Amino acid sequence: MFWDESGASLLPVTRRTWAPRGCTPVIRHRFNWKRASMAAGLCYGSRGGGARLAFHHQVGAYDTQTLIGALDQLRQFLGGQKATLLWDGLPAHRSQAMVPGCGGSGPGWWWSHCPPTRPS
What we know:
This protein has two helices and five strands. By secondary structure, it is of the alpha+beta class. The strands form two sheets. A three-stranded antiparallel beta sheet has the order 1-2-3, with helices on one face. Strands 4-5 form a two-stranded parallel sheet. A hairpin with an 8-residue loop joins strand 2 (35-43) and strand 3 (52-59).
């Protein structure tokens, strides 16, 4: 299974526009700084089964405790099957609390960090 998290903000993006000189467009926004985080896992069966998509979302950013909760929900989604989890190098993935959190979710869970890649 490949698992990754991402964040989104609902703030408008300010960029250069094609407005005529002297007619600057005005962006009106209340700046409430709403943020959401999403995580998704792409699951493949070990015996050639079909792919499944697991999706989790929440308000705010992921931390160790919320990731452990999301992984528990993922375990329920998979019906208790064994799984190998591949994820990136987010610091919450390597925290001291994550190891017992993942290990406490039951036997048959293995995880590995993907090596960092250089942007092209």
